[in-house]
Amino acid sequence: MKAVLSASNPVSEFVTWLWTPLFVGIFIAIVIYALWPRNKATFDAASRMPLRED
Predict the structure, then answer these.
(1) Which residue has the higher pLDDT, 10 or 6?
(2) pTM above the 0.85 mark?
(3) Which of 16, 39, 44 lies closest to 29, judged by CA?
(4) CA gap 12, 16 in Å, rounded
């Protein structure tokens, strides 16, 4: 027989209510920034950095 623990935790509800949508929004903003066409040249240069011989 399984024990079912069900308790209302205000901290858990606060995290779910506020922080989850906030972090989803931050993640979406980072993805948009990374895929923005104006940043392509910067990211292409950064991707070639390990292969560059100085």
Answers:
(1) 10
(2) no
(3) 39
(4) 6
Residue 6 token pair = 């069900």
> What would the pLDDT profile of 27-40 be if each residue is shown by its tens digit?
999 999 999 999 99
Nearest to 30 by CA among 17, 39, 41: 39
Per-residue tokens: 24: 């989803």
Q: Distance between CA atoms of 13 and 32, rounded to whole angstroms?
A: 29
More confident residue, 6 or 19: 19
pLDDT at 12: 78
Inter-CA distances, 1 with 4, 6, Å:
10, 16
